[in-house]
Amino acid sequence: MGQSAEWKTLPVGDLAYLKNLADHAGLEMAQALVSSAPDAFSHEIDVIRDAIEAHDLARVRSAAHALKGACYSVQSRKLAAVVAELEKNAADPDVLPALFKTVEQVGEETLQWLREVLEKDLA
Predict the structure, then answer these.
(1) 10-121: CATH topology
(2) Alpha helices of the chain — where are they, by DSSP H?
């Protein structure tokens, strides 16, 4: 088992989806959803980090699943794919550190993208 590189070809997120959401559900709702994502992402990433350090593989899987769902709620496709890979490999402690490092890196890229969406596209 190991890390697939498929996520590298994915966009960070789906701006068209978020704009469509704003058009159909309202700008305020879209802004609220996107603005809640960074805290949710950061929380679950912290839980995953703590679970890896504690060698609690069930908690790694559970937190990865929660983070994946949060990613999909705002169409953060690249991070969702990396987290899905982490979830799939949660029982393999040998690959978790490298996968988690990728989660952190793509997580930072995603948080920057979400900030830009809020500042420019959903303003």
Answers:
(1) Four Helix Bundle (Hemerythrin (Met), subunit A) (1.20.120)
(2) 15-25, 27-53, 57-73, 77-88, 96-116
How many angstroms separate the CA atoms of 65 and 51, rounded? 13
Confidence bin at 70 (pLDDT 50/70/90): very high
Q: Give every CB contact of residue 76 below 8 A, 6+ residues apart in sequence.
A: 12, 13, 37, 41, 110, 113, 114
Cα 90 to Cα 65: distance, rounded to the nearest angstrom? 10
pTM higher than the cut 0.85: yes
Closest-CA residue to 118 (of 83, 110, 43, 9): 110
